[in-house]
Amino acid sequence: MSPHPHYRGRFAPSPTGPLHLGSLVAALGSWMMARRAGGEWWIRVEDLDPPREVPGAAERQLETLAAFGMVSDGPVMKQSTREADYTVQLQKLLDAGLAFPCRCSRSQLTAAGGIHRRCLAEHRDETATQVSIRLRVPERVITFLDELAGPQSQALADAVGDFVLRRADGCWAYQFAVVVDDAAQGITHVVRGADLLDSTPRQIHLQRCLGLPTPHYAHLPLVLDEDGNKLSKSLRSLPVDGTDPWPALRTAWGLLGQDESALRTTAAPGSALVQAIAAFDPARIPTASAAAVSGTSPPA
Ligand code: GLU
After folding, report:
1. Would you say the CB of residue 12 lies under 6 angstroms from ligand 1?
2. Residue 200 Cβ contacting ligand 1 at under 6 Å
3. Which among 99, 48, 47 has a CA at the least distance from the CA of 210?
4. Which of the following CATH numbers is that of domain 8-79+221-291: 3.10.129.10, 3.40.50.620, 3.30.300.30, 3.40.50.2300?
5. 78, 92, 230, 233: which is the annotated catalytic residue?
6. Regions of the chain where pLDDT drops below 70
7. What is the pLDDT, as a whole number, of residue 22?
């Protein structure tokens, strides 16, 4: 693998449907942050969960992004091809005693408060064939400085407990795959939606367990409407149209707090975005409302 450049960002959509406004904001925000830093922007398809996947959605998402002028600088990684690397990394955690097989069922966990702290002896069913693999989470507070949301801290054991790396149905968990793949792709900067702010401490802890580097993090605000209310899920999940990119592109640019006049709609979207890089100002991005995100909070 080539040496890491000083900035490599990424966009990592799940192919569960067409690209929607919420994901366009994440794509555009991560693309602009990377370009403004003179860096690269890579795409990864997070097709980890076959039951939730829509056939053809990954290809359509890539086509839509291309219609907006956003194309991966490196090979597009598909998580469905990554089994071998995940298996090696999981084995390291098992060998180190940091991960363990767990037979607790969802309903047992719900009855115990929803957070896994230990496997209860009476829950052990040695005949069960399907086990999940969890990471043993210590009593530790993870802190990090988010470039947009500010200082964050989370007491892992209290907030999330021992979390799943591989599900009982054999699917790899997002938290695990994202860490292995950000490292494998040499990602230095993660820019994504604030709904993933409370996942970041788990990912940082996992990076430390695996001896992997921790990228810089910036979480874009939850998409708000003009009155400052959270955009309704239906509007956020409105599919964006690659054949008519301007309405969605202008909306996404505005939601990132940027100067409308910097986006020249007379050009093709690709060249308009390139022209707008110089005007893109991260300081104008509305502050992510950390309080609205469960599980993380600015340190007291
Ligand atoms: N695949 C995730 C999603 O579509 C994003 C993961 C990430 O950016 O870390 O919500």
Report:
1. yes
2. no
3. 99
4. 3.40.50.620
5. 233
6. 1-5, 121-129, 223-237, 288-300
7. 87
